[in-house]
Amino acid sequence: MTEHHYLGDVPTAATLCYGNGHSVAAYGPVHAPKMPKDYLELRRLASDGSDILSRFLAQTLKALKNDGVPAVLTWADPAAGHHGGIYQATNWIYTEPRSYSWNSHYRRLDGTVIDHRKAYALFGSSSKKVVLEREPTWEAFLPPMKYRYLMPLNVSADEAVAATRSLVRPYPKPARKLQPKRYPAAQRTE
Predict the structure, then answer these.
(1) Comparing C-alpha atoms, which of 15, 20, 80 is closest to residue 46?
(2) Taking CA atoms, which of 11, 63, 142, 150 is between 20 and 30 Å from 42?
(3) CA–CA separation, 84 vs 78, rounded Å?
(4) Average pLDDT over residues 81-102
(5) Nearest to 126 by CA among 150, 134, 70
(6) Contact call for residues 123 and 134 (beta carbons, < 8 A)
(7) Domain boundaries, the chain
(8) Is the domain 1-101+144-173 a CATH 2.40.160.60 member?
(9) What is the pTM of this model?
(10) For position 99, what pLDDT does the model report?
(11) Distance of alpha carbon 14 from alpha carbon 179, whole angstroms
């Protein structure tokens, strides 16, 4: 995970890990508020590129289903260029939270970013008002919302969506870089 995942770490809250020498999936309890306590969260998924990652992920989900796990949640981070393609390939449900609990992040003058957890550790509060009173040169901003995916295993899709208080949405598409328009050689002008 430290070598092949974009965050470069192993999550401390991972309580169940699957690996095959090329890919690894780390699952743990869901830390989102108001989520069912028996659901799991896919905390990290990493591969060295020599596996068919969708097949590996499907195998881990089958094992979780056999163990009686009702459903699994995970997130894709658009700030890291991810849209959840692997979850789409394995038929997860893309869900949007009914209400957002965005917490402010803060940007220092030197450009470094302090997330709400770090702000709380520094000031005993992550409140925008408190933080900016103590650090008036910092700029508060909301980070991009992560894409949330849901995989029902031992409950119906409707039950899982209702339990997570979600709205089912169409899959998000990857950000596309604009490509120059290509013309057949016969139409090109030099």
Answers:
(1) 20
(2) 142
(3) 9
(4) 79
(5) 134
(6) yes
(7) 1-101+144-173, 103-142
(8) no
(9) 0.70
(10) 47
(11) 40
